[in-house]
């Protein structure tokens, strides 16, 4: 069974993005799609980016543990708010912290906003950054408009049927990419042997 890490990237008080991350964890677990865990950047509270992990002389145990969780995940869902058309510094901080860990990693983007467009403006900038890091951004995305009205604090959607249908389509695409990467890794090993 694949393992999917969910990065909850908002560190604000009253954050709606975390509610969406909670929804995905619950949905993945209830449907037995993968094992999963949330990496909450509010709990990590990383310092401002100074240097990539591989160049740090004395990285913290917490930083190393975070990198290992990303490295060993079969896929990553990044749940991010849209702030003024971009993503938060907390997320930029951890994206830049790592490099090899992102290489060919299937990443699904979940964008969250209080407005009607669901954070779609942030997708382009985040996609570009992840492509530069050589990540594999999953083609299906999950924009969440009017988040405060559509999810409660526990991550329960107000329109459960519609939300779960969209989540299923999004996760099917992500799981396809995870399986494709697994098969390519096997094929590469066979060709090298």
From TrEMBL:
Residues 3-148 form the NADPH-dependent FMN reductase-like domain. It comes from the Bacteria. InterPro entries: Flavoprotein-like_sf (IPR029039), FMN_Rdtase-like_dom (IPR005025), NAD(P)H-dep_reductase (IPR050712). This is NAD(P)H-dependent oxidoreductase.
